[in-house]
Design brief:
It contains eleven helices and 16 strands. It is α+β, with helices and mostly antiparallel strands and about 500 residues long. It starts with a helix and ends in a 5-residue tail after the last strand.
Amino acid sequence: MSVAARFARLPTGAKLLLILTAVLLPIGIALVSFGESGIRQANEAIKGRAEDQSRAAAEAMQSLIARNALALRIAANGALAEGPARACDRAQRSLTIAPGIAQSFELESADGKPICSAGTVGDTGSLPVVPPASIATRIAPGLNGVAIRVGVIDGMATAFVPVAELRAAATEAPGEIEAVVLHDDNLELRVLGSPDTPDLRLRLTEWRIGNGVLLARIGAANRRITTYDRLVLLLPVLMWVLAALITWVLVSRLLIRPLKRLERAVRSYSPGGTLDLPRKLGPSREIQELRDAFGRVVSRVDESDAEMAGALEGQRRLVREVHHRVKNNLQVVASLLNIHGRGATAPEAQSAYAGISRRVGALSIVHRNHYADMEENRGIAIRPLMTELAAELRAGAPDAARSLSIDLELDSLNTTQDVAVAVAFLVTEIVEFAMLHCPEEPIEISLRRTSELTARLMLASKVLVPDDEDRPQKVQFERIVGGLAKQLRSTLDRKLGRYSVDLPVFPPA
């Protein structure tokens, strides 16, 4: 089955939904593409924003370490230039006036031996010795800050930046930084965030700070497009789907269902009955007008049927009257022939009048039976016709054949008027020939159905035997019965003492 044939067999609602989907599908595809592209761009923007926030936090911590290293170098150079005595006091006075600088530091000699200190610096023995103008950054052994060692003339200076200042520098940067962890070659310092914070909801980036010695792993909030955001971005697609469904529902309720109700009402109508059309068919004015049009058409059809039934009844009455008048006229003709026959003096004339009267009587019987059976429109019933014809022939037989016996074995069959006329004349010819030439012998007449549309008429008598003498009466008789058989569109089957012929009949009821 082709696609077009399958589509044609679908209900109208399904066809409408498919057509709407096909028409709006390119728009839907374009909207989906634009929505997905927007989601990807939004995710990329969020990812870039998180990286920018992490970079800003790393730069803030790098700036804090650089400021402390620079201030420490300047203060240590000035303090050690005047000698080791009271060098820490001179350095502390210098650092005090610098904003945002750590106040805990230690001055060491060039070989790393402590000279003096201010505040709590902790164990600095693990820090490397640095030459002048160099900087070394390490995580404090106490895991509570970052130690910065700078090389100056005639010594070194070591400062301690507590973890609180690192956290403040990272969080003051714009953005949502939730985790900061610093690494050097040996130690790890968690500046921000709990160790239990899962990394799945953070976007982690790594940055080098402190002259590249420290590795800062910074976690920013992993903001992504949520399901709600996707729904908002894909709202045009949802609107397209909703529009197709709403259109299908509206058409189904306002058009398809009323039409189906109207179809059921029209289909249940039968001629002569009442067309019960639904009163409520929705707000569609066109469907209501279609309902009214159906009602008007059915009313006109009923009126036309009534007129045709009246005309047909009149025609039937006219046909009955015609048949009745023909039957009466034939009976009048037969009566006149009987009167003239009785008044004739010559035997030949009497015989001629009688023969003509018998044929006219046979035709009258056919018309009378047709008049009786016309109401049922089943044609002429052959059995009562043959019975009446046999009685009429016996009644009109000459005196020598008053004792003629006619035996009938007939099935109940119906046929047309033309066939009935030919059968009546055939039976009349054979019975008359028998009663004139062999009146003492009985005649057997049988009619049996041979198929649904045919029957066989058989007449048996001793008079129906081959005759060696070529008598004119026999020759004329054979010519007449042969012609009547041809009217039945059959061939007369002549056998010793029996003539038979096939004739058309109506199928059984």
